[in-house]
Amino acid sequence: MSSPLLRAWWARAVILALVVVVGQVVLTLLDFGPRLLGWALLATTVAALLWLLLDAAGTHPAGWDSGLPPFVRPDPGEATTYSRVLDSHLDSRDPGPALRDRLVALARSRDPDLADPVLRDLAQQPARRLTPADIDRYLTRIEALRGR
Question: Is residue 47 within 8 Å of 12, Cβ to Cβ?
């Protein structure tokens, strides 16, 4: 048993052979004196172009999927809250645990067990001033949890 694609190509080959033979006979009877090789090449070229157009027209447009979930724009009020917490932490003389708690909550939303040792240490240590480099390092590790 052959595949449907192979059967379609065999049918096309038979049709092409019939076109070449019938065309050669008809052109000879009409006294055009066709050369068999030239006529066969012309018929093959025309048939191949016609089948290419038919095959291309019968397909559906390509669908592209990036594999990433669609971007959901955060609530502007939430972004303002995060900005306010970050600014107050950086400007405060004695920062509280608000920024640390937000970072830990964000990490737990991605990994409830908090398997990352650096983020687990952040959750267990007392509140302290975090430098911008520390904040960036923690956020980078939290973003890395998304890929797991």
Answer: yes
Q: What is the CA radius of gyration of the chain?
A: 35
pTM of the prediction? 0.47
- Dig out the tokens for 123 from the structure: 């959750």
Cα angle 34, 35, 39 (rounded to 5 degrees) comes to 80
* Residue 125 main-chain phi, psi, to 5 deg: -80, 155
d(CA 92, CA 98): 12
pLDDT tens-place string over residues 4-56: 888 888 999 999 999 999 999 999 999 998 899 999 999 999 999 999 998 88
- DSSP helix/strand/coil, 130: coil
Q: Is 112 helix (H, G, I), strand (E, B) or coil?
A: coil
Write the CA distances from 95 to 13, 17, 79, 89, 135, integer angstroms.
Answer: 81, 86, 20, 5, 14
- How many Å apart are CA 101 and CA 124, to the nearest integer? 10
